[in-house]
TrEMBL record:
Taxonomic superkingdom: Bacteria
Protein name per Swiss-Prot or TrEMBL: Hydantoinase/oxoprolinase family protein
Chain ranges of the Hydantoinase A/oxoprolinase domain: 203-490
Ranges for domain Acetophenone carboxylase-like C-terminal: 520-672
Length: 682
């Protein structure tokens, strides 16, 4: 296995508002940090600005790991490359028919636009059955003609999506071979190669997403690596995948769909890593940034990874991704009174430009950040990117836009904005916990993002969560996730066999092949892996059911009796129902091969020499802060807190990348890793 060159490691994450960077030199323990506005038209400029702001010596760097929102934004905004589809005769409308669901469960109408329009979805004669036997041979001339037509229509990329290719990919492989002779680039996606799973709708949409973002991520990575090379960087660039692993920039476009949710995944990986070092394995991660809030569940220091993610209506992306749920509530989320006279918060955001009113860049819409500043929770002199504003201006806008319609003064209107935002975020946390059979009271809340620690204590109280863990650098946790992420490759293979008829040797052979492929891929990466871990699971259901249940396995050489028992246990944990009389079906075999990275001491993110001897020395000032009423509240600088600090709220703790709000009665201690542990008052 090739190893990375010596030198500092950089993790850089591009968010909707800010681009965050952390540089860590494992040899010396030196840390450099940066937070700069994102450049959404060309994210590469934001990355380079962050490198410059941190004072990074590019020629001396050993590795850059990058989390990007390029593909996520492209899919959500439908700013995609023109893509064509070649599919089995009679099945061109699979992507449009989808499943029998509606955008709104109780709505009378809904709009859905498939990724690939009907005139670019072409059919060719071919057919496999579900066992992989050829029913209709592939018409090679029809494939060639379809490819030529799509080229003439101006398509940048193409999807080959044949029925039952997961069972026998021969026709897809031959069609790709024919297209490569005429297609003007490498953007050819075979459905089975990306996802060897049954369910033609989900496999087809996943392949369509992959093909339509391939040219975009390829262009972006080419631009970024070119700019870095021009600036003197000679090392490797790795890109975060949505599964929490990394892949070389040279190969990232091959499976571009796997980079969707790259940014949120990196934060979850940092949380799992931090929790493991802190001895707190069960976490609910809560990442509140400038545009949105992401939440996820971590059990036993292992993030929940799902291949059942639907990022919007009729947009299932069935490659394994960290199961992150997103709500449109971030620091820049706009508050308004709707036509019914009700207060709404988000999902529209003021973004980075012009941003909230308190940024002083011409923003005029009241936001969550403005509400926090009005309530004394934020110090306007320390807001990142602030160019000067007046608290009176913020108060006047809140009074006019929100207070008068709601018959409240500006302070109470701001408190109402915070309350509504907290309820939205609590709902997202319930989605990743209660809806999956997990009790939030059994977890700690891991609060990060630029705005997360401001709301964490109130959210924990709302949900009955007993503890909040605030890491060393909450505002740049996603960038830290890039530093600590492992190399990871996930595989899924459909077997779709009733358990009573399953040959265990067939399952064992699938696991062995997946493991061998994953280990080979990790060996190709130009980065050191300290060890190799393997995770095995199966997707199962009762015969006749539609939905799948993920069943983790301790070992790959499992027998059918053990599979039956584990499935029944998993079903009971999820639904609290015993159904032993219904026969089980094994649908998919899943394997994750993980190359774990060398350990990094996260405590070095706060320099020991910065710490003061007493709490009094760490205090900056006192100011009135509004909770249920105004409280005279001490304000501390986090880097100055003693290593064994203990305090009781109310308090405000400020640092370079975030502000932490401690509610009245909450008790705060620090641990050996530099984390703050908040025991929530009952």
């Amino acid at each position: 296995m090739a190893h990375q060159s010596a030198g500092a490691i950089v993790g850089v994450d591009v968010g909707g508002t800010f681009t965050d960077l952390v540089e860590l030199d494992p040899a010396t323990g030196r840390v450099r940090l940066a937070k700069v506005p994102s450049t959404l038209d060309n994210q590469a400029f934001g990355v380079l600005n962050a490198l410059r702001a941190a004072g990074c010596d590019l020629p001396a760097l050993g590795l850059i790991v990058h989390g990007t929102t390029t593909t996520t934004n492209a899919v959500l905004e439908r700013k995609l490359a023109k893509t064509g589809l070649i599919t089995t005769l009679g099945f061109r409308d699979v992507l449009e028919l989808g499943r029998r669901t509606r955008p709104q469960a109780y709505g009378m109408k809904g709009e859905f636009r498939p990724l690939i329009p009907r005139d670019l979805r072409l059919e060719v004669p071919e057919r496999m059955d579900a066992a992989g036997e050829v029913l209709t041979p592939l018409d090679e001339d029809a494939v060639r003609a379809a490819g030529e037509r799509l080229i003439a229509e101006g398509c940048d990329s193409v999807v080959i999506h044949f029925l039952h290719a997961y069972a026998n990919p021969a026709h897809e492989l031959r069609a790709a071979e024919i297209l490569r002779a005429i297609w003007p680039n490498d953007y050819i996606t075979m459905g089975h190669a990306l996802l060897s799973e049954s369910r033609e709708f989900e496999r087809g949409v996943t392949a369509a997403v992959n093909a339509s973002v391939q040219p975009l991520i390829a262009r972006y990575i080419r631009r970024l690596t070119s700019e870095l090379a021009t600036a003197g960087y000679t090392g490797e660039v790795l890109v975060m995948n949505g599964n929490g692993g990394m892949v070389s920039a040279a190969r990232v476009a091959e499976e571009a769909a796997k980079t969707v949710m790259s940014g949120p995944a990196s934060g979850v990986m940092a949380a799992a890593y931090t929790g493991r070092q802190a001895g707190i394995g069960n976490l609910i991660t809560y990442d509140m940034g400038g545009t949105s809030t992401d939440v996820a569940l971590i059990r036993n220091a292992e993030p929940t990874v799902s291949n059942e993610i639907e990022i919007e209506y009729a947009m299932p992306i069935h490659v394994p991704m960290v199961d992150v749920r997103t709500v449109g509530a971030g620091g820049g989320s706009i508050a308004r009174v709707n036509q019914a006279g009700l207060l709404e918060v988000g999902p529209e955001s003021a973004g980075a430009t012009p941003g909230p009113i308190c940024y002083g860049r011409g923003g005029t819409e009241p936001t969550i950040s403005d509400a926090n500043m009005l309530l004394g929770r934020l110090d306007p002199t320390r807001l990142a990117s602030v160019e000067g504003t007046s608290l009176d201006t913020v108060r006047a806008i809140f009074d006019d836009r929100l207070g008068k319609p709601l018959s409240l003064d500006a302070t109470r209107a701001a408190a109402a904005v915070i309350r509504i935002a907290n309820l939205k975020m609590a709902g997202a946390i319930r989605m990743v916990s209660l809806s999956l059979g997990a009790d939030p009271r059994d977890f700690a809340l891991f609060a990060f993002g630029g705005a997360g620690p401001l709301h964490a204590s109130a959210l924990a109280k709302e949900l009955g969560i007993p503890r909040v863990l605030v890491p060393c650098r909450p505002g740049i946790t996603n960038a830290i996730g890039c530093l600590v992420a492992d190399l990871r490759h996930d595989f899924v293979q459909t077997l779709n066999t009733p358990l009573a008829r399953l040959d265990p040797a067939r399952l064992h052979a699938v696991f062995a092949a997946q493991t061998a492929e994953g280990e080979a891929l990790i060996a190709r990466e130009n980065i050191e892996a300290a060890a190799i871990r393997r995770l095995y699971s199966v997707d199962m259901q009762f015969i006749g059911q539609t939905h799948l249940l993920r069943v983790p396995l301790d070992r790959p050489d499992v027998d059918t009796e053990t599979l039956q028992r584990l499935f029944e246990e998993a079903y009971f944990r999820r639904f609290r129902v015993d159904l032993p009389e219904i026969r089980a079906n094994l649908v998919n075999a899943n394997c994750s091969v993980i190359g774990t990275r060398p350990e990094i001491d996260l405590a070095t993110l706060i320099a020991p020499e910065e710490r003061k001897a007493t709490l009094q020395e760490a205090q900056l000032t006192r100011r009135p802060v509004f909770f249920d009423d105004w409280h005279d509240t001490p304000v501390y600088w986090r880097d100055h807190l003693p290593a064994d600090a203990t305090l009781t709220g109310p308090a405000v703790i400020q640092q370079m990348d975030t502000t932490i709000l401690i509610e009245p009665g909450d008790r705060v201690t620090t641990d050996a890793g530099g984390n703050l542990i908040v025991e929530v008052a009952r």
